[in-house]
Amino acid sequence: MSLEFNHAIIYVADVRKSLDFYQKALGFRLIETYDQYARLRSPKGRTTIALHKARKDDPPSRGRHVVLYFEVKDLRRVCDRLARRGVKFDQMPEAMPWGWTHAYLRDPDGHELSLYWAGKKRFGRTA
Hints:
Elements: E1 7-12, H1 15-25, E2 29-34, E3 37-41, E4 48-53, E5 67-71, H2 75-84, E6 89-95, E7 101-106, E8 112-117
Parallel strand pairs: 1-4, 5-8
Antiparallel strand pairs: 2-3, 3-4, 6-7, 7-8
């Protein structure tokens, strides 16, 4: 079996506000949009995300249940550029004990995002 993860839906309070963040701050490219839905492609690769208007009786989780990870080769440069554009970080790039470097921030609905670089450790390789 050949499975490859390629898509995630993020439930948001305001599709336009979230679309603005994912496009302008993170560089996602718009594929299509409807009244309460937008689908975007990652700046590099084939992965897509959808922003879907959350139901009034089931608001976004305020980041308690979803963490999205985006691998970025030039992590420090990208984070510095985002910070200069006004993106607020919970943590700027920091080396972790497991060998990856992580930066943490939140989207407009409070979903936690990690921009990271794993390098050779991406699939457990150490050499």
